[in-house]
Design brief:
Number of domains: 2
CATH superfamily of the largest domain: Type I PLP-dependent aspartate aminotransferase-like (Major domain)
Distance between the termini: 57 Å
Number of helices: 15
Largest sheet: 7 strands, mixed
Order of helices and strands: HHHEHEHEHEHEHEEHHHEHEHEEHEH
CATH class of the largest domain: Alpha Beta
CATH topology of the largest domain: Aspartate Aminotransferase, domain 2
Radius of gyration: 22 Å
Oligomer: single chain
Length: 408
């Protein structure tokens, strides 16, 4: 492997050993390529430093990474962050990746580097509310925003050569509709339109957008990829030339991930596959449990065989897994929903997902808060809707907690 601290190897060429990495978990554990032969160290250190000696004492040339960016100042490039980016690129089968200090920094950088006055961006109606809000705010600069969907056909119907950028989520939030992303990508290509896929809920375990023709894949690293509810971050992965452009924008905007957070994400990625598979299995069991509860009005989970998006999920996803999030509506409206949050004990009420703890979220006050009320009503995001990010606790403890909260 490559020693990121070595003056000889600062260009970190890929070695024969890293080219042989094929399995997902093997890539997630060893894909950073770091190795210090002097210390026998194979864990990526935290390079908590601002500056680097710019010129190599041996060659006299500027130190560069393999993406040909200079290593001199950590707002631009940092070895810990770069090690993370190499893992992220491998997991999605892309040429390169960038890590940001949050998911919104990632999408902001994409917007600012891609859109200009007269551009039109098409976003799913059920996309993350702040992603929508930021696009609308770009209206002051002459950018037009269209909302389509949330179903595949309703998105495709709005794609033509006048659209500059399409942003979709593989699994929508909070009603967990599965988009046939491959069909959306096909229509985008026919119209020469760039498409960004937010793959946060699906992870590269279920789907790899760029491998299937998308322009870029976007993640909130805060969620499953770090997996412990202790890191905020975002990432973008795609082809080398696009990543070079985005790298320059990231440098100017100052949105690079900090090295300590990058270290924590690297740590989280090592257990991503085993965590996510177990969370998917737990989520399916919780969804089936909720379906049989007399205090539940409706359950939303693509893993249920009678779910409207079950067949699309089986078509798009690489495994018969359906994500770790389950949404449901309680009988009794807002009062019953609030009572549920009040009574849960093991489950915690907070607006996030993807960690080892099971979290309950109230969508109308979190991810969907900034949506217009009329859009919430159209989508069915009501005041009795609850979203569960299912964690790794014992399943019987989770069922017991849900049961007593719904009963009370």
């Amino acid at each position: 492997m490559v020693n990121l601290t070595s003056k000889k190897n600062i260009n970190d060429r890929e070695t024969n050993s890293t080219k042989q990495l094929k399995g997902f978990s093997t890539k997630s554990i060893h894909g950073h390529e770091f190795y210090d032969p002097e210390l026998g160290l194979f864990k990526v250190p935290i390079y908590q430093t601002v500056v680097w000696e710019q010129f190599d004492k041996i060659t006299g040339l500027p130190r560069k990474t393999s993406r040909e960016t200079e290593l001199k100042y950590s707002r631009e490039e940092n070895p810990t962050v770069y090690a993370l980016e190499k893992v992220l690129a491998k997991l999605d089968d892309t040429e390169d990746a960038l890590a940001f200090n949050c998911g919104m920094a990632a999408i902001s950088t994409i917007y600012l580097s891609t859109l200009e006055s007269g551009s039109t961006i098409l976003i799913s109606k059920e996309a993350y509310g702040v992603t929508q809000q930021l696009a609308l705010n770009l209206g002051k600069y002459g950018v037009k925003t269209l909302f389509g969907g949330p179903n595949t056909e309703e998105i495709i119907d709005l794609i033509d050569d006048k659209v500059s950028l399409v942003v979709v989520e593989t699994i929508t939030n909070p009603l967990l509709k599965v988009i046939d992303v491959n069909e959306v990508i096909k229509v985008c290509k026919e119209n020469n339109v760039k498409i960004v896929v937010d793959n946060t809920f699906a992870t590269p375990i279920l789907y790899r957008p760029v491998k299937n023709g998308a322009w870029l894949v976007l993640y909130s690293l805060t969620k499953y990829l770090s997996g412990h509810n202790d890191v905020i971050g975002g990432s973008v992965a795609g082809d080398k030339e696009t990543i070079k452009v985005l790298w320059d924008w990231r440098k100017n905007l100052g949105t690079i991930m900090n090295p300590f957070e990058a270290y924590l994400v690297i740590r989280g990625l090592e257990t991503l596959e085993v965590r996510f598979i177990k969370q998917c299995e737990n989520a399916l069991e919780i969804a089936e449990f909720l379906k049989d509860n007399p205090n539940v009005e409706e359950v939303y989970y693509p893993g249920l065989k009678d779910n409207a998006y079950h067949s699309i999920a089986n078509k798009v996803f690489e495994h018969q897994l359906y994500g770790g999030v389950v949404s449901f509506k309680v009988k009794g409206g807002k009062e019953s929903a609030f009572n549920f949050f009040k009574k849960i004990k093991v489950i915690k009420s907070t607006p996030s997902l993807g960690g080892v703890e099971t979290l309950a979220t109230y969508p109308i006050l979190s991810a969907s808060k900034s949506m217009p009320q009329s859009l919430k009503e159209e989508l069915g995001i009501t005041d009795n809707l609850i979203r569960l990010s299912v964690g790794l606790e014992d399943i019987e403890d989770l069922k017991e907690d849900i049961e007593q909260a719904l009963k009370s």
